[in-house]
Amino acid sequence: MSFYDEVYQPIRREIGEDFMHSVTAADVRRAIGKTWLNERDYLVLLSPRAEDFLEEMAWKAHRLTVQHFGRVIQLYTPLYLANYCVNKCAYCGFGAHNKIKRDRLTLAEVEDEARAIAGMGFKHILILTGESRHHSPVSYMRDCVQVLKKYFSSISIEVYPLTEEEYRELIFAGVDGLTIYQEVYDEAVYDRVHLAGPKKDYHFRLNAPERACRAGMRTVNVGALLGLHDWRSEAFATGLHAAYLQKKFPAVEVSLSPPRLRPEVGGFDPPVRVTDQNLVQYILAFRLFMPRAGITLSTREPARLRDHLVKLGVTRMSAASCTSVGGHSETGQKTEDQFAIADGRGVGEIMAMLYEQGYQPVFKDWQLLEAN
Predict the structure, then answer these.
(1) Is 168 exposed, middle or buried (0-12, 13-18, 19+ CB in 10 A)?
(2) 300-318, pLDDT tens digit by residue?
(3) What is the pLDDT of residues 63-87, one digit of tens each?
């Protein structure tokens, strides 16, 4: 049994599509007042009715976050190793249908990037590739990790879904974290926006986090790409997925990201508008539902909004981000961006903002140790 069969489909059938629109103010107050929320309570807090209670939710979300995480925000930055991709995803700048320059870093260039990023103070790195097993095989990622672990204490991957054995191979090499977005949990929409390529396999991607957990991954971060479908149902599905992983793999540090679509070279027009208020409600509801789960906020969001979200449940933020291959070092930006970032501030500016709000930026909370 997987998340899909064990949780996702049964809860959808049990609750029904009309539940969210039948929520009353009393239901919202009751959910906010509970110590432990169930799946139905989480959906209550995602409902349109809960929009009138954001301030109460914010106070509780802040208290829970301080209780479980303290006043700290972990900082990291992404490193794009390659942008070759065989998928045709309607919303992605790296899609095979887009006529962009393709490239892959050599190991020497990976070291240049690592040196430049480490020089900014980062100890946690997130490496990314497009989905091309020919250009970015697991063996290439493993070789890159060998270079990167000289500079970073924690290495996470955001790459195409792998088999359990492949995850185990990368963990053995030095990877300790996985980020993988389902993109959209609604199966019909998923099929519609993934036009061609191996990514059309909804279930292989959906089960990837679970395979990684079984392989021994230390941290797993899931999310839906907001703007592809109704945000409330996508937020609900993502929260259910995170809760399922946390319950089934208690030794794994589970977190969630709420990324919104950004402009990309293909000019995709998001079918659903997700407002700042929607994003805030999603973060608050999730924090109340899963007090011990991390929440990652990327530079997809503008600086002013990120500043305001620091106290509302966020535990991890990216900084000095670049979404092109080879954009951190003197090698220079070698390709077009996967998407446009909205917060272009450097590390020093993000640190100053956090200190000003009474928070401590953290660059390292994990140390990779070589086996004896």
Answers:
(1) middle
(2) 999 999 999 999 999 999 9
(3) 999 999 999 999 999 999 999 999 9
